[in-house]
Amino acid sequence: MGRRGFTTRQVHERAPGATPTARATPIYLTAGFEFGDYDDAAAHFGRGEGFAYTRVGNPTIEAAEHTLAALEGGSQALLLASGQAATTVALLALVEAGGHIVSSTHIYEGTRGLLRDNIARLGVQATFVDAIDDVDAWEEAIRPETRALFAESISNATNRLLDIPAIAAVARRHGIPLVIDNTFATPYLLRPIELGADIVVHSASKFLAGHGSVLGGAIVDSGRFDAARSGALFPHLVAPGRGAGGAPAPSIAERAGGDARIAYARESVALRFGPTPSPLNAFLIAQGIETLSLRVERQSANALAVAQWLETRPEVASVDYVGLDSHPDHALALRDLPDGFGSVFTFTLHGGAQAARRFVEALGVFTHMTHLGDVRSLILHPASTSHALLTERERAALGVAPGTLRVSIGIEDAADLIADLDGAAAAVGARVGAGDELVIVA
Fold it and tell me: DSSP labels for 61-89?
């Protein structure tokens, strides 16, 4: 029998050794596990056998990791307490003081802050590429000390779609990994590892969990670490390990082979920094994954219907949705997103910040909150929230104007969403200033 379809696998994929009599994954809500006998403890600490402490490993968490790795086409996954924790752990597993990261400018503002402020304090610099479709710009930004390229598959806020095969080729030429935040696309719409990326990160709080109830994050590794080619760039992965009593031990690369990166992330970074997810959250994320394709398919269809409707409205100056012919990355989307174009996009209304306020306050179906990927349609004003600390010029470069609103399209009936937006547009009124734009990020 050939490879099963995505939806079949998201329901039936199970971790090896899963409890055979429990069809749903049991929730092992425990801090620790008993050792069977005296030697079991030594075997765990010496060779990593079995479960001992949930910060190190837990059957419920492991089950969610296994399913996500399979759906992303990766070798292993590591579940963490939040998406921000996943990005942090993934990058700290690669860089050290004096290192350098090349990143797309078009990423979540919290990640930009992580790179510009927090990781910078550890002696790691970051260069941001504005023209992410310019392969030469990525190439020119790489330095001898560069250890990772980072981007989002579908970006916030202007819905830019990265040409992953092209940028992955750049990364391979230099022996460094391409790390992709695939939160917006999900593995149902896009699988970066299959397109050449090396590491994928997710905010599992969003589409994977799907119901706005829990936090979580994940790292998925391709398992393609080449110690012979890239070992000199990542000495911590190829240096001898430390065995019992301080005796030399095999390196992580010797023990884990192509999984050396995620083994280091799991055993050294996540274990010591401690962003451990709750087993209950892991269970709910795994439950969400079982309906991922159904939700994302509906959300993408709704988003396309909303975007097409918005393009016809006189109140709307422009719509930034990669599913529309008018978007600069539409041809790339037709190539890489055959199952849907996602459900987060931008559109621009004539008007300004006051119009944005009136628009938000007139909505009844959309929920006003900071989140996305929910079954419910959501809206937020970035200029006064997530992007408030940026200068006006910085916000403009990211597609965030004074009237920008972020909207994540849910699974409601499309007609009700359009009616809600129509009512809000009527509340804004036909009187708009020609030079004062209102941008709505959906």
Answer: HHHHHHHHHHHHT-SEEEEESSHHHHHHH
Kindly give, in sequence order, each residue whose CB lies less than 8 Å from that of residue 261, ignoring residues fewer than 6 positions away: 93, 94, 177, 198, 199, 221, 225, 234, 237
Of the candidates 157, 154, 119, the one whose C-alpha atom is nearest the C-alpha of residue 385 is 157
In sequence order, which ranges of 156-315 are alpha helices (DSSP H)? Answer: 164-174, 186-189, 227-230, 235-238, 252-256, 260-264, 271-273, 279-289, 292-311
Local structure of residue 259 (DSSP, 8 states): G
Contact 368, 360 (CB under 8 A): yes
Q: How far apart are CA 159 and CA 218, in angstroms?
A: 22
Query: How far apart are alpha carbons 374 and 151 in whole angstroms?
Result: 22
The reply to whether omega before 157 is within 30° of 0 (cis) is: yes
- Chain mean pLDDT for the chain: 91
Q: Cβ neighbours of residue 367 under 8 Å, at least 6 residues apart?
A: 374, 376, 377, 378, 379
C-beta of residue 412 within 8 angstroms of C-beta of residue 302: yes
Q: How far apart are CA 76 and CA 224, in angstroms?
A: 11
**pLDDT value of residue 198:** 98
pLDDT at 435 over 60: no
What pLDDT is recorded for position 211?
95
CA 175 vs CA 93, 108, 134, 184, 272: distances in Å: 16, 26, 20, 27, 27
Each residue of 299-355: pLDDT tens digit?
A: 999 999 999 998 998 888 888 899 999 999 999 999 999 999 999 988 877 887 888
Q: Which structure tokens are listed for 21?
A: 């009599």
Contact 381, 388 (CB under 8 A): no
d(C-alpha 442, C-alpha 437), whole Å: 16
From edge to edge, which strands make up the β-sheet containing 76-80?
A: 76-80, 217-221, 199-203, 178-181, 146-152, 100-104, 125-129
| CA gap 271, 278 in Å, rounded | 14
Are 408 and 367 in contact by the 8 Å Cβ rule? The answer is no
Cβ(309)–Cβ(418) under 8 Å?
Answer: yes
